[in-house]
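Example (one chain per record):
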Amino acid sequence: MKHRHTVDKLAKLLVYILGRQPDEFGLLPDENGYVKIKDLMKSLGEESGWRHVRLNQIREVIYSTGWPPIEIEDNRVRAKDRSRLFSPEIPDTFPKLIYYPVRPRAYPALLERGLPAAASGNRIILTSDFAMAERLGRRIHPFPVIVTVNSEIARKNGATVRRFGKSMFLSDSLPLGSLSGPPLPKQQPEAKQAHRHESQVVPKTPGSFYMDLKNDSTPNDRTPKRSRQRKNEWKRDRKQSSRNKARGWPGD
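Predicted structure:
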């Protein structure tokens, strides 16, 4: 009974997300009402009490009811009853500032060139809620950059902005001049980066020691060591002199 109650609660939540207020969860259905399953899983993982939900539990909502409230096709899911699902619209008034999350790596190029309209027709998701912008940003990067968009300047420069739900907005472009954000990190001067002293060059083989023959402190005119034969020459001379005396031969 407890398990059945959990399945019913999940079914009601999915109906609310997919068929009524997807914007509250940072989700944007396509023209047929479908949402990518991976995006739905991310949004559930952000909700307290629903972080444990997995795909098999979503499928159980379909298989355990006579008239399933949701349906899955490939990697997408949607609510069967979408009569209360709204469409994007152009509102009478816009909030002055809306927010767009971006990966840190793409942030400098965005400030420099803006974001032109995509040929594929992809919709740029923005929000008037800064906390929601951070939530959306964490889905693409652990530390996203939140860009502020002046909606009035964006529309004057040719962007088409529509409202989707309470706080979500869709735009076909982000024109240059309508964007602002945190300052870019300062780059070190190239001269300092390129300058390296020869003594700091790391050998190709770590842990190896290479002798520098050019800086050898040993003098080149050092007297070579006497050979072993010359070193013991006096001993042989002494032995020969002793033999000559024993034989009665005069010494040298």
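Caption: The domain at 2-79 is CATH 1.10.10.970 (Arc Repressor Mutant, subunit A).
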